[in-house]
Structures are given as structure tokens and as C-alpha cells.
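Notes to self after the call with IL:
- keep both proteins in one doc
- input above output, always
- annotate only the second one for now

Protein 1:
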Amino acid sequence: MPYYKYLIIGGGMTADAAVKAIREIDKESAIGLISSERHPPYKRPPLSKNLWKGKPVESIWLKTDELGLDMHLGRTAAMLDASNKRVVDDRKNEYTFDKLLLATGGTPRKLPFESDRIIYYRTFADYENLRKQTEKGERFTVIGGGFIGSEIAAALAMNGKKVTMLFPEDAIGKRVYPTEIAQYLNNYYREHGIEVLQEDTAVAQEIIDDKIVLKTKAGAEVTSDGVIAGIGIMPNVELAQQAGLKITNGIHVNDLLQTSHPDIFAAGDVAEFYNPSLEKHMRVEHEDNAVMMGKYAGRNMTGELVPYHHLPYFYSDLFDLGYEAVGELDSRFDTIADWKEPFKEGVIYYMKDGRVRGVLLWNVWDKVPAARELIAAHGPFCSTDLLGRI
């Protein structure tokens, strides 16, 4: 069985960042990577953004395979024996290791009915499938009003497709944006030709003349050539759970990104970590966290031992609108809006107990460091302290 000083389970951006960090410090030792995807690591955000704006597919590849490692693609780790430092994959291949990184990501949540026609949008294979469908189909339904749903709906509309959005909340991004922004987005998307069906959800489907007919809870029927669902993910903790590692809202790690086994690390979408700026444990499903956490995990696996205190940011593109955001964006918090131009450019502060917990930089750029500093400050703050601050 192959032995690796460093073994990584997962083939996403976290895994790539970890390999690159290891190779910066350790040029020679054996690295193995096991990924259930058949493609080598790639940038995930372009799947719902830049690839629909004309960027070439070649731009997404991270070139991990050029770093001198063994990549076992199209394989899934099925068993982890932590005490003997042994992994068995779904083809019964065995691997041993010195240090292990669990970068297993998440699996899309599914609708309450079976369907092989719905794309639960997450991977490059999903992008290839949808791109192929758009070559023939004209009408598409997007289920979900969160990050993936709002981005892919905009992408399809910008590519000339007729799009319907269907989601249970009363507005796009309801859980993240303040009510006035979420309601604004409903109208903004309608102005861009998208049919927005809020406060409803799909409960069943029929295939009629190769069209997908979704039946909704409210009794409506929505017909389309293709259906894309973006309704969240569940962290892939099963392998860690089977191995007896501590599980909370994800795989629990300390500030060195070690699990409850000191030679097994976890990072990315699957890992729950403590952030000193927010003084809470959190799990983050965005690119910046995936890359930075992977980088720190890789360095720590080599023995460098650098604590992960990074406060991640995230971003989105919605037609002509875009933003960067830092911290906790929870629409249940009090918010203070500092608009330069309402709904076009401004900064929204998310407040709890006199502290800034999150900052939404709406069409405002290069201010993420300032937002991080503000979140780390204890305050207390009031509106007069914040207006014009960023």
C-alpha cells in the first residue's frame, strides 16, 4: 500500500492550497490526494460567474498536478483508521500516512423527491451538464434564492435564457441581506427578465415531452428545459465521524486546524473553527476561507504551527451589481445602511449588542481590511460612529 507523509482527502480549492503550502516548505516528501471528482482541482466560483461571461474553461485549472504528487481521482475515501493512520477508498485501495488533511467539502441538499433531471449545482461536471443543456434549451428554472441560485439565475439570463426563480423565502437572499435590499433584488431580477416566484417550493415533478414540469407547494406548475437547484450543502463529516473525530457543526478543529487527533487536520467547507474577531465558532462555505484555511493547514502539517485567526470574506456578482462582505451577514441582526446611492453603492453594517458583526460592501471595493479591523474592535458603536467610516 502506498505511504504518504502528507495525505489529502478532497480535491477542491482547499486541497490545492494545502499542497502548494506544503511544497513551499517541503519540496521532496510524498504527497497523495484522493478526490471523488474525476477532474484535478479547479476554481469553483467561476462555475456560476466568469465562465458564463465568456472566460475560457482553461482559466479555472489550478495546476495542482504540476507540484509533484500522486493524484487518485474518481475515488472516494470510504474508511479512516485514525489510530493506524490508514485510509481505504471505495475501490479497496489502502493508503497510509504521517499527516492527513480532511478537505472533504460538502454535498448539496436535495429536494424531497427523486429526479435525475435536476442539477444540484456544485461541480465542474455540473457546469458541463448545464452548458450542454443551454445549447438546446431556452427555458430554465432555478430553485433557491441564495448565493448559487441568484448567481446562476443571473448568468443564465445574461446568456439569453428565459429564467424562473423559485424559493421559499419572500425575497432573494432573505437570510443574508437586510429586508430592503432583498426586496430590491426581487424587483431588480424581474427588471432583468427573470420570473421570480417567492414563498413557494417544488414538491414533485413530471416529464412531459422531455420538458420538466415542476409542481409547487402552492399548486403552480413550472415548465422548463432544465432545472438547477442551489439549496445549500451538508458538510461531509461521515468519514471523520466514523473515525471517532469530534464533530460539531462540521469537523471540529483547534486554531492550528488539528482535529481531535493531532496528526489529522481539517479545513474548508467541512471544518468548524474558532474566530477570535467574532469570538465564536463558525463554518464558512466560501472561496477565501477555503484557500486560506488550506494554506494554513498545509503549513501546519509540515510542523510550522501557525494559528488560523483569519476572518474570511466572500463576494458575489448579480448582473451589474457586485459586493464583498466580511463577518456575519445575518438578516436578523440590526443593520445600519450608509448609502452613497441607494441600492447602487454603499456600506451596510450588521450590529449585535453594540458591536459590528458583519460588513456588506455593496459595489464598494478594496475595503475588506478596513471592515476586518472594525469587526475586531469591540465598540460599542452607534450609527453616528459608523456613517462615513468606510
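Protein 2 (the one to annotate):
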Amino acid sequence: MDFRELLAAFIIGGLFCAAAQLVLDGFKLNPAYVMVLFVSMGSALSALGLYQPLVDLGGAGATVPLPGFGHLLTQGVLKDIASKGPWGLFSGGFGAASAGIAAAIVFGYLMSVLFVPKG
């Protein structure tokens, strides 16, 4: 990995964060609405074939933020539809995102057990 790849990831990830902050401040939306908006945007762009070039350019800067989650779900659904037919519509997103969601649950639980908040 060279400096240009790191810079591209930083810029693309930063632009997603800046866009989310502008939406939050400009439209006074609840953060939950912005999260759903960004996941849906990533999913729609992925279905149209417009998100993969961004992933190819920005790497983790495009896959880690919320639109990247929408892209992951959509790609899983498209892959499962191709291999399993219409049932892939229901199973593809779960299969694609299961490892990341399981890791979030396990590490979240471990952190809650290991560290006690001061309050």
C-alpha cells in the first residue's frame, strides 16, 4: 500500500463524513435518518454500478462508512440472486454482512465486560 492509496481513502472517507455533517446541520435531520439515507444511497449507487469505481479508488475510505454497508448488502443480494435465484433476495444481504455484524456484537460485548463506565 502506498501513500496515494492512503490519501485516496482519507479523502473519500472524509468527503462522506463531511457530506453527512452537512446533511445533519443543513436539514436538521435526526442522525438515524441520515444513517438510513446514507446506507440507502450506497445501496442504490451499488445497484446502478456507480459505487464499485469509488471502492476501487478509495478502498476502505469507501467501504467502511455507511454507504459502504449499503454497497455490501446490495452486492450480496445480487450475488445470491445470480446463484440461488429469487430466494437470494432474502438471503444475500445477511450472508454478505454476517461476519461484520457478528464481530461488532462480539467485540461490543467484550468491551462492555472488560470496561466499566465511570458515572
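Annotation: The helical segments are 3-27, 31-47, 52-58, 60-63, 66-84, 88-114. Residues 38 and 77 are 18 Å apart (CA to CA).
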